[in-house]
């Protein structure tokens, strides 16, 4: 833009981007003209406002630059085709607001909605069909009445309120700092599975639900622990390399790639960016990977648990707070025990967690992530924070007003907080710096040096809502700490060291329950968390109820003002409705697979065995092996038939259960339908073991996991 626009126009745009004033029509028209020329030079024929409805993915409607202009001449009318793109077209577009999830805020006859250009995220050109391209304009999506219908609007709001609250706190602590803007940074580690498209096309459960509803583990899967960080398979390496090049062209900075724990599971991760841009880039990366994988005859699976029995996939969100002076507010520096600004912001994060942990559990809850949470690759439903021994010692020492024990080694003060040097005891190898603390893979919210890693986010979901909720909780906590500091300071121009320490000690005590350093998977932690008063939310429908709790509603709607009550009610409805629909789709897909594929295969195999036994008996040949196989098969087929009947009945009951409260319907899905889906799977998987391979109608885990 700096190269394409006149300097006054670009300066005006930058002021608008910083919230100084609105874009006027001449500026918008000048930008629209420049971006059309830029895009068309790169083959663009269409433009689209690219937005994030509450579907977990992105949406786009393409419009051509082509327009027809009619001129009236003495000889009649003359119509000329030209390319046009006005400022008003750049600023907004109008999709159908009633056709996206709205939670009742919009009805079919109230169809008008608006997409509005998000100037904080760069426009980009992406390849289209037949050698053409499309101009993408990152946008927010609101209703005719101004309600947020998307994931991005509330994220941008949360960024702004957090910035204001953080600036107030910093300028109270350090009036000379003159910090005018604070922003959150985000790095999203994206995990995923790849599967051969030919195998994928033969698995209706994968195509419809994103996960396998039946299937036994192969003899060898991840138990040898040899896939993690192993050599990337050739076809996968080609795919990810092409993804990186495509993303580079779009301005997405992919930095890391590697094998994950399970067979056919991989990860890519970007360089950190401002949170709202990072969300855009994560969703764009997911979309590009779909396209690139297709070109290599692969299918990418983002479901959190596509294969039962092996690790699932997450989207680890590495989150921090930075100032417009380039300072990371969560950087402990060399001596965190005297870095009171760091400690105060650290406590603000912990206070947000301690007060609103259930909301973070809501933000990661879905029918798909439910299969992963609490397993051996993901944290449980109890939200806690891991700080590490060193930072815990800092907080404990400040609270108890005592010196820090074994905090640092003087000769290594230049190494990051409390670091030491590791001698590998091999002459040819250098000594290395050891980090502040070890890492805790079982913690849902772990401090990792200068940021928090929110590990519980699901691989399939957009990071927008989890980051929005986190921003909201931390904003409320910053406001609470700021108020406490003002009361402690009184009439003094700035808080003294004693004032700061008094407030710090108060919040250290308040946030103790949410700090946990041990094994989050252990039964002991479940009991201890209950004693601490931390909620153990075991299901998504249970989590959704916390969106209605008065203390959380108050924080989200009044304390921070991120949501209106209508927007919060709509999200509650959408989350519950989506959960119920997902479970019903899984149940009906499983019913189809069992009724039309698995049971017929079992009947055919049984018939073959019976005919073989009868023919052998007629010929006077021993039939014991065939009879034994029939005797083993028969009860398994009967058991599956019984479970199949239960599944059919529970689907009818669930569909007939009409209720006004969407959460009641979601609870019915969780309590009544989910257990039957599991029992049908168990019965089917028992049959898979005994039916001859050539009769089994679906590609098995061996083909799905081990042929990439």
Automatic annotation (TrEMBL):
<comment type="similarity">
    <text>Belongs to the glutamine synthetase family.</text>
</comment>
<keyword id="KW-0418">Kinase</keyword>
<dbReference type="InterPro" id="IPR040577">
    <property type="entry name" value="Gln-synt_C"/>
</dbReference>
<dbReference type="InterPro" id="IPR022147">
    <property type="entry name" value="GSIII_N"/>
</dbReference>
<keyword id="KW-0808">Transferase</keyword>
<dbReference type="InterPro" id="IPR008146">
    <property type="entry name" value="Gln_synth_cat_dom"/>
</dbReference>
<dbReference type="InterPro" id="IPR052725">
    <property type="entry name" value="GS_Type-3"/>
</dbReference>
<dbReference type="GO" id="GO:0006542">
    <property type="term" value="P:glutamine biosynthetic process"/>
</dbReference>
<dbReference type="Pfam" id="PF12437">
    <property type="entry name" value="GSIII_N"/>
</dbReference>
<dbReference type="GO" id="GO:0004356">
    <property type="term" value="F:glutamine synthetase activity"/>
</dbReference>
<dbReference type="GO" id="GO:0016301">
    <property type="term" value="F:kinase activity"/>
</dbReference>
<feature type="domain" description="GS catalytic">
    <location>
        <begin position="151"/>
        <end position="598"/>
    </location>
</feature>
<dbReference type="InterPro" id="IPR014746">
    <property type="entry name" value="Gln_synth/guanido_kin_cat_dom"/>
</dbReference>
<protein>
    <submittedName>
        <fullName>Glutamine synthetase/guanido kinase</fullName>
    </submittedName>
</protein>
<dbReference type="Pfam" id="PF00120">
    <property type="entry name" value="Gln-synt_C"/>
</dbReference>
<dbReference type="Pfam" id="PF18318">
    <property type="entry name" value="Gln-synt_C-ter"/>
</dbReference>
<dbReference type="InterPro" id="IPR008147">
    <property type="entry name" value="Gln_synt_N"/>
</dbReference>
<feature type="domain" description="GS beta-grasp">
    <location>
        <begin position="45"/>
        <end position="146"/>
    </location>
</feature>
